[in-house]
Amino acid sequence: MSVRRAAGIVAGLGAAALTLGACSGGSSSAEEEGGAAAFDPGDRLTMIVPMGPGGGSDLSGRSIAAGLEEVTEKTISVENQEGGGGAVGYANFLGLEGDPSYLLATETALVNLALTEDVPFSWESFTPIMKVGQDSTIMVVPQDAAYGTCTDVVDAARAGDVKVSVSGGVTGNDAIQFGLIEKDQDVTFQRVPYESGGEAIAAVLGGHVDVALTNPGEVVGQLESGDLKALCVIAEERYEYEELADIPTTVEQGIDVTFSQYRGIIAPGGISDEAKAYWVDASKKYVETESFKEYMATNYMQADPLFGDDFTSYLEQYEADLAAGLE
C-alpha cells in the first residue's frame, strides 16, 4: 500500500467531507437548531489561537473571530497561547469546561497531538462547532536555492544533510509530512523545530534552514515578490487559484505523499445544547458573508464548511485515517 493511500489525508478525505456535507444538506441535529436565539454567551468573548502569531492558525483564528463579530454583533478578542505545537493552548482550553464565552481556532494539530503524544485531551474533549475548509502545504526554498523541484530536495537528502524547518512541534503537521516523504523516498531530513509557520518562513528566508513547508496564505506574498520559490504542493491535484496553479504536485514529481489540513473552531466541552446551537447558528451565518468568502480567497483555502455533528463525524474519520497513515 502506498504512503499516499495509507495516509488517508488526501484529496479523497476532502471529497469524503464534501459528501458528508451533501448528505446532510447542511442540516444539523435538533439540539443545534433550537435555543440559539434565546441564548447569550455574554459580552467578554475570546478566541484562543494555540499557535504563535503570524502563521496559518493565527490568520484563521483572527479571520473567523472577525467574521463572527460581524454576525453576532459582539466583540471577540483573540489570544495566542503558543507552546508544545498547540498542546499548551489545548490543555488550557480543557480548564474552560462548560464556558461558552470561549472558542478555539483548531486545525489538524488537535488530532496529531492526541495520536502521537501523551496529552490529556483529544478532539472528543471539546465541542466541535465549525470546519471552514482545508488547505494543502507548499514546499518552499529561497529564490536562489539550487533546488528546482521537491525531487531535487529528496536527492540532496540522499547525498547529505538537508535542513528543514518543522513548525508546530516534533509531532505537528510539518513533521508528519516530512516523515511521510522520508518513508516514501527512503531519505532522512535534518529537522529544525519552530513554534509557528511565521517563524519557519523567517528561518528559510534567513538561511537558517534549506527548506520549509507552509500554507499558501502564509507565503504567497514572498512567492509574488520573488523572495521564495515554490517547489511543489503536497497534494494529488494542483491548486485552482491562478497564483498557485503552476505549482506542480508531489505526485507529479514521483513522490507518493499528499496531505491536507482542516481549519475550524471548537468550543469547550460540556457546554449546554443552547450554547452549542448559538455558535453553530452564528457559524452558519458567517459562511454566508463576504468576510468568509474573502478569508477563503485571501488564504487560498478550499471551502468546505461543516457544522456541529457533521464536523464531529468528519473528525472521527479524519482521526481514523491519520492513525492509519502514522502506522
Treating each run of at least 4 consecutive H or I residues as one helix, how many helices? 13
The end-to-end span amounts to: 12 Å
Kindly provide the radius of gyration, computed on alpha-carbon positions and rounded to a whole number of angstroms.
19 Å
Integer tally of domains: 2
**CATH architectural name of the largest domain:** 3-Layer(aba) Sandwich
SSE ordering: HHHEHEHEHEEHEHEHEHEEHHEH
CATH class of the largest domain: Alpha Beta
Described by strand count, sense and barrel closure, the largest sheet is: 6 strands, mixed
What is the helix content?
Answer: 40-55%
Q: What is the residue-mean pLDDT, rounded to a whole number?
A: 87
Structural class: alpha/beta
Quick one: CATH superfamily of the largest domain?
Bordetella uptake gene, domain 1
Q: Low-confidence parts lasting 5 or more residues at pLDDT below 50?
A: 1-33
Strand proportion: 15-25%
Protein name: Tripartite tricarboxylate transporter substrate binding protein
Organism: Georgenia daeguensis
Family: Belongs to the UPF0065 (bug) family.
